[in-house]
Q: What sequence folds into this?
């Protein structure tokens, strides 16, 4: 593949070749006159066959050239024409039109040459005269069956037009010509044959001939102004004639040849074996052209007696000559009206407009397909001509077509596309075109051009698509007119297609290596020029094959001959794009959007019919979309906000064209640095490569504003993002390139765009539809540009997104470490733009529970435990974690790396996991915390003492002391440790109550005045209940807790109580006797309260509420004698009532027992009587 180069600046560009046909040179500067005698000699006919070029001239010469193919290294060059011979065919008129026809018969290697109305036959390829044929006079030769198969070995049947008839002659390679049929149709000037049907024309009208059944159907006149045309049309006529026997008279059949200037081959005369030219009348002289003749000369010998239509309509002309008069003579000798006299009176008379004078028109017949003939009709040479189609029945079969003037020559190209077919057009069919050589201007200044139009579409549609052949290549155009020249044109379809190479196809479609200019920060690799690989050679051969075309039509003017070649789809459409891609100066790329959009609209839905069209449509879609994108870039550079419709069209064009996204990104500032080119560069069509390189050279992208909230973001970023997402979705498809650099670029650019767009989003987690959600989705999947993605995320300070990238794209061995390290950076305070790492510590804890790397769990678990002990210890205590720790190992680890989290972990072990072995450690931890605080802080000791005093002065009803210190807790660690210590000491659960009481008590004794609740619990656990109740009553003044102590035991105090439930399970309640004993201890302590009013009130309340647990005698013995009965009257009344109730209940029980005893006695007596006595013999 060759390195593509941009078009040099400042060079005038040739006009675009956007028509359906283009010219390619065959030969030029032909030596039309060797001896200088005929300086005005011109080309009259051309034929090309098997590498040979035959050129007929008006000097009655045939130039034979051998076409040597171009050099192999440049197959697109024109062939080299070497003249092989210059031949003057035999003729009898030195002033005739010259060589009129060269009819090549390739199957039999013969050629028929008509020169000045004299027919000769030659052998191919050297044009040696055929010894079996003697030249004869005729008007025309041709009519070879266009349907004839190549494999037919019976020779070729041609039609020879004589003065009064047509003769079908069979010519073979080795035998003399033989007459086959004679048809009474004289003066034939042209005929085209399809098997047995031949469409022919004389100088006046067209007719359809059935050469097999020898019938004729008149069609229509050539010129509607012809006064001698007669009646044309009607029923079929028989045109059979009695065939004449061949004449062997050499003297009577020979033609008096013009020998004065005879050149070339000289052969002896042959026998007249076809019966043609039987008398002196066959020796005709070249007629003098009439004054109004145009374009060709009709011999004067062609009288109307030879016309196939003897009758005429009286409406045609009031001065019709009688039968037998020469119609042309009548036409020529028609008197002109006398000029008006000078003295004639001036009378205003409304005269009818006079029709234009009649000028004979040359008939043209072509056959675009096996079932139709195309005929031309008109009025005058300068007025519009009409092309009419007839079928093999002589009926009009489709709409007519218009020519801008009556054509001088026509050729048809392509079999046409049948749009009415229910199965759709044939994939091998070609569009049907008519090429007509027409003229414009007056007789003194005529200009000539080639008009091109479709014949296989409706007339209206064909008119819209009418084109002109660009004739600039001829070098004869004047005044910048590329469609007309001042020199007459000739056209012909040659007998054999010729292979041509159009280098434009290869230059546009060949995949070339595009190396973008290095951009600071861009991703590129060193490119070295490697020798041509097998793939590159295969690409070159493929390109040459695509560039090969065939043509059968030639155009000549002056001394030049050119091929008219079907303009390939790619060059035709690309020419339209080239017209739209440049500014007015013709060098600066500044696309015009509307014409580009029209090109895309024209090819939308078009199905390719071959490989070349398939690649062409791809190329055009891609280039058009690139041009539209360039338009958006250039307008954005000038701060223009583009309409949504235009952006949508551009985006859709890029998607349909499937342009390499690196091409799009290379035209954008900021994003161009994300392009990964690779060692091979970017492989893309050469036509796009040249445009892109020129655009990048002329456009300074660094000056474009890149504000995301301005035109740059609104015009470009959004739809480029969608285009990149389109490419990302296509990854892995069979029809998509496997180049890894493409998808590396896609991922890098898409990430960059999303980072730019997400800068304005609020901090926090993403929600569906936001750029952040798209960003997260991108990095959560496989990313081809990992290293570049890391750079971008670090550049934009998106650490949390970076951690997600590590999680989804790193190797398993390093994934967790990179994720955790990134999260640690965020938690340590490093900036994380976007703030998406919400509740980061908890996320880190959950992540540690999912990984299996123990060293990472230990490292980051200890780090988190130091930072947040309560959360961190969950890592070491989680039973569902994949890495589990033995408590001993965890405690050691935490003591070493996170001492502050040991307490939390021990609490979890003791309270959560019920591990009793760690109770003493936890209690010791609490004690250390509290005692250390009391030792080091007198204020804390004072605070504790103050709580006791404050609580004691509260008036009942008041909360328990535990509730009081909980509600009034201070935010200090030692205070919370004390609350947990009370809970732990007071629990009677086996898991938490298995601590060493004596050891703890020993440590607390120095602080028994400050730690009263702790001492109460420890006394209760040692069953020193009286001391515990004493401290509750006198140390704290917490009478409700003292009562709870008596009812539920020591374990019920200093612990949270849920309303409606017992402090302890019912099964753990002390027995009634124990409760009574404890109440007696409490009564004693109440009787020792220093405050008399409190003593009386508390004692009376206790006896009244819980009198059932006291013995009345014991109480009366304990109460002071001086107390009034009113103080404990409630107790006495309840006690007496209880005694009475108990006495009554015992009497009832006794009576029920007596009745039950009597009933059992009666039942016993009854059963004895029933059973009767029993006799037992005693031996």
A:
């Amino acid at each position: 593949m060759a390195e593509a180069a941009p078009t040099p600046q400042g060079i005038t560009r040739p006009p675009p070749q956007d028509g359906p046909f283009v010219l390619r040179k065959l030969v030029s500067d032909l030596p039309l006159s060797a001896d200088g005698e005929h300086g005005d000699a011109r080309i009259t006919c051309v034929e090309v066959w098997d590498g040979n070029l035959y050129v007929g001239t008006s000097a009655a010469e045939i130039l034979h050239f051998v076409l040597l193919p171009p050099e192999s290294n440049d197959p697109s060059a024109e062939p080299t024409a070497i003249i092989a011979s210059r031949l003057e065919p035999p003729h009898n008129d030195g002033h005739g039109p010259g060589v009129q026809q060269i009819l090549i018969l390739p199957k039999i290697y013969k050629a028929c040459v008509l020169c000045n109305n004299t027919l000769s036959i030659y052998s191919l390829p050297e044009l040696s005269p055929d010894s079996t044929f003697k030249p004869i006079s005729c008007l025309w030769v041709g009519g070879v069956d266009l349907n004839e198969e190549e494999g037919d070995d019976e020779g070729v049947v041609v039609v020879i037009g004589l003065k009064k008839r047509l003769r079908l002659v069979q010519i073979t390679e080795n035998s003399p010509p033989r007459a086959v049929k004679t048809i009474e149709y004289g003066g034939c000037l042209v005929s085209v044959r399809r098997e047995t049907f031949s469409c022919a024309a004389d100088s006046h009208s067209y007719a359809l001939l059935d050469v097999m059944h020898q019938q004729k159907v008149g069609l229509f006149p050539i010129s509607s102004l012809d006064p001698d045309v007669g009646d044309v049309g009607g029923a079929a006529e028989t045109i059979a004639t009695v065939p004449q026997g061949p004449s062997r008279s050499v003297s009577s059949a020979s033609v008096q040849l013009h020998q004065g200037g005879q050149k070339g081959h000289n052969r002896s005369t042959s026998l007249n074996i076809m019966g043609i030219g039987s008398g002196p009348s066959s020796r005709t002289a070249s007629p003098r052209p009439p004054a109004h003749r145009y374009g060709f000369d009709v011999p004067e010998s062609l009288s109307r007696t030879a016309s196939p239509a003897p009758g005429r309509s009286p409406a045609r002309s009031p001065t019709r000559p009688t039968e037998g008069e020469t119609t042309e003579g009548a036409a020529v000798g028609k008197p002109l009206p006398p000029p008006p006299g000078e003295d004639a009176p001036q009378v205003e008379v409304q005269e009818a407009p006079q029709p234009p004078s009649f000028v004979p028109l040359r008939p043209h017949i072509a056959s675009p397909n096996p079932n139709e003939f195309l005929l031309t009709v008109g009025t005058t040479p300068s007025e519009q001509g009409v092309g009419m189609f007839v079928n093999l029945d002589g009926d009009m079969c489709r709409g007519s077509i218009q020519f801008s003037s009556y054509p001088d020559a026509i050729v048809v190209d392509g079999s046409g596309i049948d749009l009415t077919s229910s199965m759709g057009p044939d994939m091998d069919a070609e569009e049907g075109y008519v090429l007509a050589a027409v003229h414009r201007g007056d007789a003194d200044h005529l200009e000539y051009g080639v008009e091109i139009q479709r014949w296989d579409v409706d007339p209206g549609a064909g008119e819209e698509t009418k084109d002109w052949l660009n004739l600039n290549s001829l070098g004869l155009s004047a005044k910048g007119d590329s469609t007309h020249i001042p020199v007459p044109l000739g056209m012909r379809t040659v007998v054999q297609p010729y292979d041509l190479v159009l280098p434009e196809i290869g230059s546009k479609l060949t995949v070339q290596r595009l190396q973008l200019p290095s951009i600071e920060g861009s991703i590129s690799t060193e490119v070295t020029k490697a020798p041509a690989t097998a793939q590159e050679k295969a690409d070159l051969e493929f390109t040459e094959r695509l560039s090969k075309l065939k043509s059968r039509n030639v155009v000549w003017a002056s001394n030049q001959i050119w091929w008219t070649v079907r303009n390939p789809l790619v060059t035709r459409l690309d020419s339209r794009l080239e017209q739209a891609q440049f500014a007015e100066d013709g060098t600066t790329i500044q696309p015009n959007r509307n014409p580009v959009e029209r090109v895309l609209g024209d090819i939308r839905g078009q199905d390719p019919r071959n490989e070349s069209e398939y690649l062409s449509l791809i190329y055009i879609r891609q280039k058009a979309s690139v041009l539209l994108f360039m338009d958006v870039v250039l307008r954005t550079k000038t701060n223009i906000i583009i309409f949504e419709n235009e952006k949508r069209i551009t985006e859709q064009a890029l998607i349909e064209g499937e342009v390499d996204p690196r091409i799009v990104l290379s035209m954008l500032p900021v994003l161009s640095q994300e392009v990964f080119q690779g060692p091979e560069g970017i492989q893309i069509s050469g036509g796009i490569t040249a445009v892109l390189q020129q655009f990048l050279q002329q456009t300074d992208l660094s000056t474009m504003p890149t504000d995301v909230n301005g035109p740059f973001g609104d015009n470009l970023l959004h739809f480029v993002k969608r285009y990149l997402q389109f490419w990302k979705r296509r990854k892995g498809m069979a029809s998509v390139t496997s180049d890894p650099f493409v998808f590396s670029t896609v991922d890098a650019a898409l990430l960059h765009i999303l980072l730019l767009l997400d800068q304005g989003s609020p901090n926090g987690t993403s929600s569906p539809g936001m750029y952040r959600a798209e960003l997260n989705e991108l990095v959560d999947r496989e990313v081809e540009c990992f290293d570049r993605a890391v750079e971008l995320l670090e550049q934009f300070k998106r650490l949390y997104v970076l951690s997600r990238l590590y999680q989804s794209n790193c190797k398993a061995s390093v994934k967790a470490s990179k994720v955790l390290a990134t999260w640690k950076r965020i938690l340590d305070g490093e900036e994380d733009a976007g703030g998406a790492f919400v509740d980061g510590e908890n996320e880190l804890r959950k992540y540690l529970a999912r990984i299996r790397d123990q060293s990472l769990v230990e490292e980051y678990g200890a780090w988190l435990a130091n930072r947040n002990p309560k959360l961190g210890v969950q890592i070491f205590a989680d039973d569902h974690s994949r890495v589990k720790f033995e408590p001993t190992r965890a405690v050691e680890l935490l003591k070493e790396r996170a001492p502050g989290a040991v307490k939390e972990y021990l609490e979890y072990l003791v309270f959560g996991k019920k591990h009793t072995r760690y109770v003493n450690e936890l209690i010791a931890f609490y004690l250390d915390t509290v005692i250390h605080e009391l030792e080091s802080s007198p204020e804390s000791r004072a605070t504790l003492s103050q709580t006791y005093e404050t609580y004691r002065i509260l008036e009942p009803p008041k909360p328990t002391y535990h509730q009081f210190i909980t509600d009034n807790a201070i935010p200090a660690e030692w205070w919370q440790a004390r609350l947990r210590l009370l809970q732990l000491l007071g629990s009677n659960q086996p898991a938490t109550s298995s601590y060493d009481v004596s050891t703890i008590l020993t440590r607390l004794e120095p602080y028994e005045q400050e730690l009263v609740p702790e001492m109460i619990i420890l006394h209760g656990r040692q069953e020193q209940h009286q001391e515990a109740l004493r401290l509750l009553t006198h140390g704290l003044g917490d009478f409700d807790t003292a009562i709870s102590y008596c009812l539920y035991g020591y374990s019920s105090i200093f612990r949270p109580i849920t309303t409606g439930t017992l402090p302890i399970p019912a099964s753990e309640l002390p027995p009634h006797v124990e409760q009574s004993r404890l109440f007696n201890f409490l009564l004693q302590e109440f009787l020792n309260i220093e405050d008399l009013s409190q003593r009386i009130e508390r004692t009376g309340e206790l006896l009244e509420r819980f009198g059932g647990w006291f013995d009345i005698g014991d109480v009366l013995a304990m109460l002071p004698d001086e107390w009034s009965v009113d103080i404990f009257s409630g107790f006495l009344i309840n006690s007496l009532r209880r005694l009475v109730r108990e006495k009554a209940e015992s009497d009832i029980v006794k009576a029920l027992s007596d009745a039950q005893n009597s009933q059992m006695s009666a039942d016993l007596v009854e059963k004895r009587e029933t059973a009767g006595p029993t006799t037992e013999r005693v031996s």
